[in-house]
Each structure stands twice: as C-alpha cells, then as structure tokens.
Amino acid sequence: ECNDLFNLFKTTTYYSPELIWQRFQMALEKGKKGNISLANYLQKTLPKSDQAAAALWLKVHKKPTLITNSKSWNSKSFKAADIFAHGLSKLSRKNITLAQKTWREQQHNFQLKDTQKDKVKKYFGLRLAYQGKFITSHDYLSTIIKPDSEARIWRVRVALRLQNWRNVQAALENLSVEEQQLENWRYWQARTWEQLNQNIKAQALFTELAQERSYYGFAAADKVNLPYKFNNVPIPATSTALATFAQQPAFQVVQELQNIGRETEAKRHWWFAIKLADNEQIKMAAKLAQQWGQIPTAVFTVAKAKYWDDVELRFPLAFQSEIKYYAQQQNLNPAVVFGLIRQESVFNSQAGSHVGARGLMQIMPATGKQIARELKDKWGSTSSLHNPNTNIRYGTYYYKKLVNKFAGKFALAAAGYNAGPNRVKLWRPQVQMPMDIWIETIPFDETRKYVSVVLMNTIIYQDRLQQTGLKMQNLLPMVHPK
Predict the structure, then answer these.
(1) Which candidate, 456, 346, 333, 316, places its Cα nearest to that of 403?
(2) Do 415 and 451 touch, CB atoms closer than 8 A?
(3) Which terminus of the chain is more solvent-facing, meaning fewer CB atoms within 10 Å of its CB: N or C?
(4) Res. 75 pLDDT band, cuts 50 70 90
(5) Read out DSSP for 362-399?
(6) Could you give phi then psi for residue 132, rounded to 5 degrees?
(7) Other CB atoms within 10 A of residue 406 CB
(8) Taking the alpha carbons of 205, 206, 209, 210 in that order, is the dihedral positive or negative?
(9) What is the pLDDT of residue 69?
C-alpha cells in the first residue's frame, strides 16, 4: 500500500542519501541482532560512492572484532567514526574487556562527536552494570554529556547499587522533569533524603507516596508507620443494570457460544464487542464478565477502560480452596501464592506462554516432569499442567524449593521463579544491601517489574483474604552476599 507514495517521495528533494543512512543505522541497531535484510536493501539504494562505507559497516556489524584492527582504516574517511562507535557497542555485548581496551587505544584515531562518545559510554556502562561491575559502570554513565532516558535511569540504579547516596541524589537531579514525577523515582528521592538525614523532607514524601496502592506505596507506608491504602472503589453496577446490559445482542451471542462450549468464538465476539464500546460500557462489560465467572476476561476488560480501583474485580479470589490447601501443604502464606498466580496467568488455567509454560502458575513441561519425579507422581502429559490441582500443587512445591534455596527470602524466590535461580545467584550482591535496592537494580526489566508486582499483589491479597500481620518490610529484608 505504501509503494506508490514512497516512489513519489523518492522523486522529491526531501529524499536524500543522509535519510537513507539514518534508516540504515536504525536497521542495524534494531533489537539485539539488527535488521540485516533491510540494511542490505538500503545499501543498494545509496549512491555508488557511499556503498563501500555501508559494506564495511555491515561487516563490522556481523564481526565486531574487526574494529580491533581499525588502525588500518582511513580514520577520517566517510562514516568511519560511526562504524567504529557501532562496532564498539556490538563488541561490548560479546567481550566488554576487549571493547574497553579498543576504546582506550583507538578512540583518538577518529573524529568522534559527543553523541558518538555518549553512545559508546552508554553501552559500556549498561553492559558493566549487567555484569555487576558497578564502579566502572558509574564512571562511564556519569560522564555522558547528553544521556538518554535509559542512561539517566541506570545512572541512578548504579549509584543505588553502590549505596553512594550523594551520587544517587546527583543522578536523580539529572532525570528529566517527567521522570522525576514517576512513583519509583519519587520513592528513591525519599529514600535518598532519609539516608542524607533530610528527615523532614523524606517523611513528607513517604507520607504522600503511602496514599498509593502499589509496591512503592506500601513500602513508603511502612517507613512512616501508616496503614496501607487499598483505595477500593468498585464500579457501580446493580443486578438490574447488569441484566439489562447483558440483553444486548453482542453479549447474548457471547453467552450462547459459552453455553455450547465454543469458548474461542465466544472470546472473539467479546473482544469485538468491547472494541465498539465506549469507556462506561467497557466498565459495565467487565462487571458482567465478573458476574459470569469469566475471571481473566473481567480483569483484562477493566484494564481496557483504564479503571484501576475496583480491587475485588482486579484481584479475584479464584481457586481459593485449592490455593489455600496447597499453600498450607508447603507452609506458604496463601497471599503469596495468589500474588504469583495473579501475575503469572490472571487465573487462566488454560494459559500458555510463547516459551511453552502452562497453566495457572505457568510451569514449563520439563519442570513439571522433574517435580512429578520428586513428588513420586506419575507424569501424564503436558496437558496435565492445565489441571488446577496439579498445577497449583507443582507450582507451590517449586516455589517453596526456591524460598528454601534463598534462605526464606520471598523476593529472591520470585525473581528465581521468573528468571531462573541460576541468574538470581549471579545477581546476588558482593556486600549486604537492602532488598528494595536489590530489586531496583535487577538487570532484566521483566524480572524487576515481576518481583515488585508479585510483592504488591501479596499485600493486596492479604487484605482480600482478611488476614493481617504481613508487612511489605517483611518482604524486603536485607540481601546477603553471594
């Protein structure tokens, strides 16, 4: 559909070699491997005089060690500095030590712009942080002239990991105005003031944060000894209003399809109906799904409406008897198990991930087989993991193994459940540190978010189960060295 318009664009003065070069570079920087096929195509569209530089760039992209011999290049030639900087970023993924050595020895051979130097420093800083070399990482990240958002944020995290609170304060002040208003960085501002003995400012900000129903809000509440705020405001929907709403033809079709077991078609009709609805109708539909016992559908539907305060809808107590039974078997707080399942599958027993994890607690088939052997169960098939009893039994057993492995620390066990216990062992600190710092500096974005959400869910589910006693500070003990 774009071809005719693009061909017309190519006939205008706006279409230039520099624009092609920009797209060429973006193609190579996309993801971990880059879009090689697109870069090859773009190389052919460049002027003949530029194609040799593009060919070298592609070679360096595929084999970054070529930059170690860059002294043989004409360092002032077209795009040489770009190619050198790109090669360093690629090499840092495979051999950060060699990349650093090459940078020290050869950077002065090239007419590098500040933006190119910043890019190299950012890649080095991030790579070293992921490897646990935080002092050297800070040296790179703190000297970037114009850091992007990722570099700014990791400068804060690296300073946190070093527990250098003066550097944390400097890094927080270097965040953009928008970033400084985000809940996590407001929490870390309060923690920093606390460490720098600016207690009045810290207490005021902790008190403000404690009004939120979140991981950071609960952690802040403990700092100032305030009760947790759950801010439960259910969507108003009477039985009569729901019955009337359910009479709409679209939802009658959904219900009929459910009644005859055609679940896949029912879901397709549901989401088509939601796509055509306004925000108030979507909220009503979420309550209807809740009434029908369609738990995951209700949760995902209310998220479409961006309504977050119906806590009972968003944090359902599905499979309550099974969860309580198997949690008791493993001496686990059932709120923790609810928190895990809410994040893993949103209580969809038929859930499956792109990597093959199955069921409520998203167990990999290989892990399921191993657990079956350890429990002396007869392994049936992968489909057995969609059985709620089997899945919760296996999942609680495996999670308890991780809790024991990590000396009772639920956050480390949650990280191990998501990323694997071997990675968590690598991420353990060299010196003792508070758990909230460790969580904030987990290298994987997905795992960092996963752990904080599971801990938040646990506190919410404790309230939903009408239990007391467990505080966020109990879930955030000190982390000891490897």
Answers:
(1) 333
(2) yes
(3) N
(4) low
(5) TB-HHHHHHHHHHTTPPP--GGGGGSHHHHHHHHHHHH
(6) 85, 10
(7) 21
(8) negative
(9) 86
